[in-house]
Amino acid sequence: MLEMRPDCERCGVDLPADEPGAFICSFECTFCAGCAEALDDHCPNCGGELMDRPARVGKALERNPASTVRIFKGGK
User: Fold this and answer.
1) For the chain, how many structural domains are there in total?
2) Phi, psi of 45, deg, nearest 5
3) pLDDT tens per residue across span 44-71
4) Which domain holds residue 59?
5) What InterPro entries has UniProt attached to this entry (predicted)?
6) Burial 27-48 (b: 16+ CB within 10 A, else e)
7) Which end of the chain, N or C, is less packed with Cβ atoms under 10 Å?
C-alpha cells in the first residue's frame, strides 16, 4: 500500500492524499507537479520515472490514512 507522503521532497509543498498533483517513483519518492516537470519526470534519488500518484479518498482514506512523515530534502 502506498504511504501517500504529505509533501514534495524538493520544495516542501503540501500534497494531500485526496488531491491530484503528486508524482512518485517506484520507491515512493514524492514530488509536486512543478518539481516533477523541472526534473524531466525522473527521480533525482534513484533515476526512476516519476508517475502520477493516485488519490486516496473517502472511506479508503479514513481506513488507511496518509503518512504524516515529511521528507523535505530541498534541492534544485
Assistant:
1) 1
2) -85, -45
3) 999 999 999 999 999 999 999 999 999 9
4) 1-76
5) DUF1272
6) eebbbbbebbeebeeebbeeee
7) N
